[in-house]
Design goal:
This protein has about 450 residues and is of the alpha/beta class. The protein has 22 helices and 7 strands. It has a 4-stranded parallel beta sheet with strand order 2-1-3-4, sandwiched between helices. The chain is globular.
């Protein structure tokens, strides 16, 4: 009987068995890598998504047998190193994901490989620094230090030194740091708004600031708060937060992910139990609580409760619109918006809610771009991967150029800056929350 391709059923994501001893067995890992690589070689649908698949197919095509069995096992790591867990292959391309009998989950196999490599070799000093977002944020947001860090990051000769000494590419866009963090800006904030529950929303939200939203772009949290309160939704800032764990997960450092979970979930579960829904302004952080932590800790009831209460901001606003509770009295049209759909938002399977909300604004046209920007948070800034990241971003950059839009941006602020880096024409990205605030005139 022939194996059928694809399925009419929704993809099924299996829990990540990361605490099983066999998960870290290199022999078992290589056996599964060979199986999956062979399937991918025979399919090749994902060749345009990232650098992992062209790397794999080149290894196969250049081997003596021109099959996966002709590729040296140690070369398998080249494919792993280019995967930054965008999840697009699983969610948008692969016809063999479960419940298909081949049970192919390429991103989580790459994650397993990264975890094996991390346990066996550890990581470089650079990678430890780049993924220690809380520590860097606390240090770099100290007054005077913030200005110094931002200045150093903008001076090309010093960036060349940084490239040689630390392996951070001189042409990569690095995030700015603010001594006036979001926590400082919202320290005395209190919403005096009557809660209006809906059928699917509880009508009041707790903002998980994220480390990036707190230290690097605090205006995102301010814009979110202004927009939500303009729509009669009380907003409170979560008592505290650590990095959601996504940067450490991308290294395969799953123990650090567990520690981040143990810091964040108790804070968030108190809010959920007190009747708050939760939103965060960075798609990767939302995805961490919606998908990755629930798959890593499937038996943890608090993790599952937080998952059910976690929303993308525009997902939440569109739910309020369906409940007849969204303010659609806009003062300012936006004209033409070139909108990059972030990978970690796409794979939440919520549809293009950002586009849907922005299109409610009169005299506003939104042109979505559904391609990866190639940033990933750290991939684009690493010396050895920056060129590949910009090549991945090129189709997105070209679409923005061709659009000649009044505004461009992405729900992922880092993707927005990756596009800015590709454009190099002086135009700055604008986050959709900022655009929505502008449209409201608040």
């Amino acid at each position: 009987m022939s194996t059928r391709e694809g399925s009419l059923g929704a993809p099924t994501r299996h829990p990540l068995d990361w605490q099983n001893e066999d998960f870290y067995n290199e022999e078992s890992l290589f056996k599964e890598l060979e199986r999956v690589y062979d399937i991918c070689h025979g399919c090749r649908r994902c060749v345009s998504l990232c650098k992992s698949f062209p790397t794999l197919f080149d290894l196969v095509d250049e081997s003596d047998s021109m099959e996966v069995d002709g590729v040296a096992k140690q070369a398998y790591w080249k494919v792993v190193d280019h995967c930054y867990l965008c999840d697009l292959c699983y969610m948008t391309k692969c016809p063999y994901v479960p419940p298909h009998e081949w049970n192919l989950d390429f991103p989580h196999l790459m994650l397993r490989a990264k975890a094996v490599k991390f346990k066996k070799q550890g990581v470089s000093t650079r990678d430890k620094i780049l993924t220690s977002t809380d520590t860097i944020g606390k240090l770099a947001s100290i007054p005077v230090v913030a200005q110094t860090v931002n200045a150093v990051n903008s001076i090309k000769p010093l960036r060349k030194v940084l490239q040689v000494t630390l392996g951070v590419h001189a042409d990569a866009t690095l995030p700015k740091y603010h001594s006036s963090t979001l926590r400082k800006r919202l320290a005395d904030h209190a919403s005096n708004i009557e809660v209006q529950p809906g059928e699917t929303t509880r009508g009041k939200v707790a903002l998980f600031a994220t480390c990036y939203g707190n230290y690097n772009e605090p205006h995102l949290g301010e814009d979110l708060t202004a927009v939500f309160e303009h729509n009669g939704i009380p907003v409170t800032l979560a008592e505290k937060e650590q990095c959601c764990g996504m940067p450490k997960m991308e290294l395969g450092d799953l123990e650090s992910v567990r520690k981040a979970k143990e810091a964040n979930i108790p804070v968030l579960i108190k809010l959920v139990d007190a009747g708050w829904d939760i939103v965060a302004p960075v798609p990767s952080c939302v995805l961490m609580f919606k998908q990755e932590l629930p798959l890593m800790f499937p038996e943890d009831e608090d993790v599952q409760k937080v998952k059910a209460a976690m929303y993308d901001p525009f997902e939440y606003l569109m739910l309020r619109h369906k409940e007849g509770k969204l303010n659609i009295e806009f003062k300012n049209p936006l004209g033409k918006v070139s909108y990059h759909v972030a990978c970690h938002q796409r794979v939440q399977n919520i549809g293009m809610k950002t586009r849907d909300v922005l299109q409610l604004i009169p005299d506003t046209t939104v042109e979505p771009i559904e391609r990866c920007s190639g940033h990933d948070g750290t991939y684009a800034v690493k010396k050895e991967f920056h060129a590949a990241s910009m090549k991945i971003a090129k189709p997105v950059v070209n679409r923005v150029k061709q659009a000649e839009a009044d505004h461009y941006g992405s729900d992922c602020p880092m993707a927005g800056h990756q596009i800015e880096n590709g454009l190099r024409d002086g135009r700055l990205p604008e986050h959709p929350l900022s655009l929505l605030r502008k449209a409201y005139g608040i």
